[in-house]
C-alpha cells in the first residue's frame, strides 16, 4: 500500500470503506462495479451508479414474476398493487415518515414533484413564495405559478441569528431578502397580511452546487414565524408550508420527517441508487395534500366522468388523486432492489464513507500550492459559524487558479479530466443562485454574460476575468480512495506548476482555455473585421492542435479541411474518448514534428 493511502487510512480508517459492514468497499467495487475499472466516476450529484448485483436482482424479479396493469382486477394486477404499496412504504420508511401523516406520490422525478406542488399550491394575492438563493432551477420555476396567481416571490440568504443555550438548537434566523418579484405592483402594495393566506418556503437539504447542508430546523423556524428580515420588514403572517428539495441530500442523509415535519419533500431515485431513471416522489403531509388543488383529471385520477357534460368525480386517495395515468409500475417494482443496497450498508455508514473522502479531498486541495506559494484553488461552500449548518455533503466544488492568481477555465479542467479517464461535472449545475453567490457574480455580470451569448452548457468558462461556473467533484457510496487519488494526481500533474511541463502539456492538449470576448459575438465575426491571425491543425477531435505558418487553399477553403482523420490499426477512428492521454500526447508530439 502506498504511503499516502496509509496516511489517509490512519486519519479516516474508521469511517472509510464500511468497516464491520457486510462487504468492504474494495469488495463492493470488485464484485458490483466491475464496469468502472480504470475510470474515476466523480459525478454522483449528476447521477449515481447502479450496482451490477442490483440489476441482476431486478432482472430476476421481472423475469420470474408477472406484473400487470394495477388498474385491472387480475392476479397479475394484484401482484403489482402489492409491490407498489410496499415501495411506497419503503420510501416513507427511508424518510422516517409515519404513514398516518405522510403519503408517497410517485412522479417522473424530483422536478415533476416540484412542478406538482407549484401547480396545485393554493396561491392567493396575499401569498408569498420564499426560497433560499441556493436552489435548483426546478425549485425557482415554482415562482412562475406563484406570480401568475398574484402572489409575491423572493429569494433569501439565511444565517443563524440566535442559538438556544438549553437545547443547542437554532432559535431564530436572520434572512436577507433579494429582489422581491411581483407580476402586478399595485396588488402588492395594497396587500394586507390578514394571516389567512398560505405561503411556501423552499430550501434544499443539501445544495447541489456547493454541498452545503441546510439545517432542517428551518422547518420549525419558518412555521413558527421565527425569521427576522434584515430590512426590518415584519415577518409575513399567514400559514407557512415548507418544502424540502432533498434530491441531492437524500443519497447520504435523508431528511428525518419524524423530527422535522416538512409539508413537502421531493426526491429522485436515480440520485439514490442509479436505477431506475424517470422516477421520483413527492412525500407530502396529508394536511398539506388536502390544500392542493388539481385541475387536470385523467385515467388513474378519476372515479367517474361523463364525456359530454361537465361532470367529474375524482378519486379520493391522495396518491390516486395526483398520479396521472398508469404509474411506471415496473420501475417502481425495481425500487426495493435499490433500497436493499442502501439498507445493507446503512445510511450512517454511507454518510461517513463519502464524507471521509470529501474531507480528505478538500484538505489536499487547500494544501496544494504553486511553487510561488499561491493556492491552486478556491473551494466553494463555507464552514463559517454564521451559516445555519456547518456540515458539508460529499461534494467538493472549486475553481483552479494559475500561479499569478488568474483563473483556470472550468471547461478546460473538464476536457482534460475526460482525457484522463475522470468524469466530473462543471458549470453552474442548474443552481444559478448558488453559482452567482459563490462566484461573486453581480446582476450586471450575469447580464453581460448572457448578452455575450453565454448559456449554461457552452464553453465560455471565463468572461471578463471571472469564472462563469465551477468544477464539481461529487461522491457516491461506491466511491473509493483510488478515485480521489486519481483526481488529485490529475490536478497535480496538469495544474500545479512545479513541473514546467504542466502548462506546456496543457496547451499541447487543448489549446488555451476557452475565454470569451467581452463584447457580443456579432462584433467579433463581422466580415469587415475578419483577419487571419494563425492556422492551427487539429489532428484529433477536441485535442490540441499545432500551428502552421501557411496552408494551401482549395476552392472550398483550406485544402483537406475536415477531409481526413486518424485511424487505429484496426480501422477505428481515434477520438479523445477512445485513446489514453499518454497515447494522445505522443501522437501530438509526433505529428507536430512531421
Ligand atoms: C437533481 C436535482 C434536481 C432535479 O431532479 P430530477 O429528478 O432530475 O428532476 C432538483 N434538485 C436538486 C437539488 C437536484 O440535485
Automatic annotation (TrEMBL):
Coiled-coil residue windows: none
Domain Aminotransferase class V: 41-158, 241-487
Residue stretches making up the Molybdenum cofactor sulfurase middle domain: 531-578
Cross-referenced InterPro entries: Aminotrans_V_dom, MOCOS_middle, PyrdxlP-dep_Trfase, PyrdxlP-dep_Trfase_major, PyrdxlP-dep_Trfase_small
PANTHER family xrefs: MOLYBDENUM COFACTOR SULFURASE, MOLYBDOPTERIN COFACTOR SULFURASE MOSC
Protein name (record): Molybdenum cofactor sulfurase
Organism of derivation: Cucumis sativus
Lineage summary: Eukaryota, Viridiplantae, Streptophyta, Embryophyta, Tracheophyta
Amino acid at each position: 500500500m502506498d504511503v499516502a493511502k496509509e496516511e489517509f487510512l490512519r486519519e479516516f480508517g474508521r469511517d472509510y470503506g464500511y468497516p464491520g459492514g457486510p462487504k468492504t468497499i474494495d469488495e463492493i467495487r470488485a464484485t458490483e462495479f466491475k464496469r468502472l475499472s480504470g475510470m474515476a466516476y466523480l459525478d454522483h450529484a449528476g447521477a449515481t451508479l447502479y450496482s451490477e448485483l442490483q440489476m441482476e436482482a431486478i432482472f430476476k424479479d421481472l423475469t420470474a414474476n408477472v406484473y400487470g396493469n394495477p388498474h385491472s382486477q387480475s392476479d397479475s394486477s394484484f401482484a403489482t398493487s402489492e409491490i407498489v404499496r410496499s415501495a411506497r412504504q419503503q420510501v416513507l420508511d427511508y424518510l422516517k415518515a409515519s404513514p398516518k401523516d405522510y403519503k408517497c406520490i410517485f412522479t417522473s422525478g424530483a422536478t415533476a414533484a416540484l412542478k406538482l406542488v407549484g401547480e396545485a399550491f393554493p396561491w392567493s394575492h396575499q401569498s408569498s413564495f420564499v426560497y433560499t438563493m441556493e436552489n435548483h432551477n426546478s425549485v425557482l420555476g415554482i415562482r412562475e405559478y406563484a406570480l401568475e396567481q398574484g402572489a409575491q416571490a423572493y429569494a433569501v440568504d439565511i444565517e443563524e441569528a440566535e442559538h438556544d443555550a438549553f437545547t443547542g438548537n437554532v432559535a431564530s434566523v436572520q434572512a436577507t431578502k433579494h429582489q422581491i418579484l411581483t407580476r402586478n405592483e399595485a396588488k402588492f402594495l395594497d396587500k394586507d397580511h390578514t394571516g389567512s393566506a398560505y405561503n411556501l418556503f423552499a430550501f434544499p437539504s443539501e445544495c447541489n452546487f456547493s454541498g452545503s447542508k441546510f439545517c432542517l430546523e428551518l422547518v420549525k423556524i419558518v412555521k413558527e414565524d421565527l425569521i427576522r428580515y434584515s430590512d426590518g420588514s415584519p415577518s409575513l403572517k399567514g400559514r407557512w408550508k415548507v418544502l424540502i428539495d432533498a434530491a441531492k441530500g437524500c443519497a447520504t442523509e435523508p431528511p428525518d420527517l419524524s423530527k422535522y415535519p416538512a409539508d413537502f419533500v421531493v426526491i429522485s431515485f436515480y440520485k439514490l441508487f442509479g436505477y431506475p431513471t424517470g422516477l421520483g416522489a413527492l412525500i407530502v403531509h396529508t394536511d398539506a395534500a388536502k390544500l392542493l388543488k388539481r385541475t387536470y383529471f385523467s385515467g388513474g385520477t378519476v372515479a367517474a366522468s361523463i364525456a359530454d357534460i361537465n361532470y367529474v368525480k375524482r378519486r379520493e386517495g391522495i396518491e390516486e388523486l395526483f398520479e396521472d395515468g398508469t404509474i411506471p409500475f415496473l420501475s417502481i417494482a425495481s425500487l426495493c432492489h435499490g433500497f436493499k443496497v442502501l439498507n445493507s450498508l446503512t445510511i450512517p455508514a454511507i454518510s461517513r464513507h463519502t464524507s471521509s473522502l470529501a474531507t480528505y479531498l478538500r484538505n489536499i486541495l487547500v494544501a496544494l500550492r504553486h511553487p510561488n506559494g499561491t493556492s491552486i484553488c478556491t473551494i466553494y461552500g463555507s464552514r463559517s459559524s454564521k451559516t445555519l449548518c456547518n456540515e458539508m455533503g460529499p461534494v467538493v466544488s472549486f475553481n483552479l487558479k494559475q500561479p499569478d492568481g488568474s483563473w483556470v477555465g472550468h471547461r478546460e479542467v473538464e476536457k482534460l479530466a475526460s482525457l484522463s479517464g475522470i468524469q466530473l461535472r462543471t458549470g453552474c449545475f442548474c443552481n444559478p443562485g448558488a453559482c452567482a453567490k459563490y462566484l461573486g457574480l453581480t446582476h450586471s455580470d450575469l447580464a453581460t454574460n448572457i448578452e455575450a451569448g453565454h448559456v449554461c452548457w457552452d464553453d465560455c468558462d471565463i468572461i471578463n476575468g471571472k469564472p462563469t461556473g465551477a468544477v464539481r467533484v461529487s461522491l457516491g457510496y461506491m466511491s473509493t480512495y483510488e478515485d480521489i487519488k486519481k483526481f488529485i494526481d490529475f490536478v497535480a500533474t496538469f495544474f500545479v506548476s512545479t513541473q514546467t511541463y504542466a502548462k506546456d502539456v496543457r496547451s499541447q492538449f487543448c489549446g488555451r482555455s476557452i475565454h470569451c470576448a467581452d463584447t457580443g459575438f456579432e462584433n467579433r465575426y463581422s466580415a469587415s473585421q475578419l483577419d487571419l491571425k494563425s492556422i492551427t491543425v487539429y489532428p484529433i477531435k477536441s485535442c490540441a492542435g499545432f500551428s502552421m505558418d501557411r496552408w494551401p487553399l482549395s476552392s472550398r477553403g483550406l485544402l483537406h479541411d475536415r477531409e481526413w482523420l486518424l485511424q487505429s490499426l484496426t480501422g477505428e477512428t481515434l477520438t479523445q474518448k477512445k485513446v489514453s492521454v499518454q497515447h494522445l500526447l505522443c501522437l501530438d508530439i509526433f505529428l507536430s514534428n512531421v
